Automatic annotation (TrEMBL):
Residues 44-138 form the Methyltransferase type domain. The keyword Hydrolase does not apply. CDD domains: AdoMet_MTases. GO terms for biological process: methylation. Keywords: Methyltransferase, Transferase. It comes from Nitrosarchaeum koreense MY1. The keyword RNA-binding does not apply. This is Methyltransferase type 11. It holds the Pfam family Methyltransf_11. One of its GO terms (molecular function) is S-adenosylmethionine-dependent methyltransferase activity.
Length: 213
């Protein structure tokens, strides 16, 4: 079992999954509120944890299906325990092996992408999973511009890819995305880095028209 899966299996059992919802929920919801859900859509949360984002999205009247995937079996068990309606679907799988019959309108990921073996390959897979015009919202507190969080990898002793804001932008553009970023700060938080840097969201849009190359 890889160290990332082992760590999150442990967190699912000791209540850390619920803590992550409290830690990241405020900024994640700020971004979700900027998305225009004005027509029927399919939604994927990569690294869904206990399913808190999937549950929220599944209640939207235009949601056809909200899917959550996580490589931690225990996280998916927790997500299924908390399931509130039939629009939710969860799968214990990593991104590389995930398969779905339809393309997604929105893919979301909060504090997950930097755990993958290859960010480049992960972004290629996400690009393929999106419909033309679909968007990927990737949130991370762990980026090199934010010095306070750069020590997380050593503390956790698991694989975490640390990159700068500019490097993240480059990864997205190389995968074919039209790319922009947004810093979501929590100005009333006790932690200085949350007030000054906050969560970096890299937002990639799959072009409406695909290149013939």
């Amino acid at each position: 079992m890889d160290s990332v899966r082992k760590t999150f299996d442990k967190w699912a059992k000791n209540g850390r999954a619920d803590l992550m919802e409290k830690e990241h929920g405020k900024n994640a919801i700020k971004i979700l509120k900027t998305i225009s859900f004005d027509k029927p859509f399919l939604f994927l949360d990569f690294g869904c944890g206990n399913g808190w984002i999937v549950r929220r999205i599944s209640k939207d009247p235009f949601c056809k299906k909200a899917v959550g995937i996580d490589k931690s079996k225990n996280m998916i068990i927790e997500a299924n325990k908390k399931k509130i309606n039939n629009n939710e679907e969860y799968a214990n799988t990593d991104l590389e092996n995930f398969k779905f019959n339809n393309k997604f309108d929105i893919i979301f990921s909060m504090e997950s992408l930097y755990y993958v073996d290859s960010i480049e390959l992960a972004l290629k897979k996400i690009y393929k999973l999106l419909k033309p015009g679909g968007k990927f919202f990737c949130g991370t507190d762990f980026y090199s511009d934010n010095k306070a969080t750069a020590k997380w990898a050593k503390m956790m002793k698991i694989q975490m890819h640390l990159h700068s804001k500019q490097e993240w932008i480059s990864f997205f553009k190389e995968a074919g995305f039209e790319t922009k970023t947004k810093q979501v700060k929590d100005l009333k938080n006790k932690k200085k880095w949350k007030r000054e840097f906050g969560t970096l969201f890299i937002i990639g849009k799959k072009p409406e028209r695909q290149s013939s190359n």
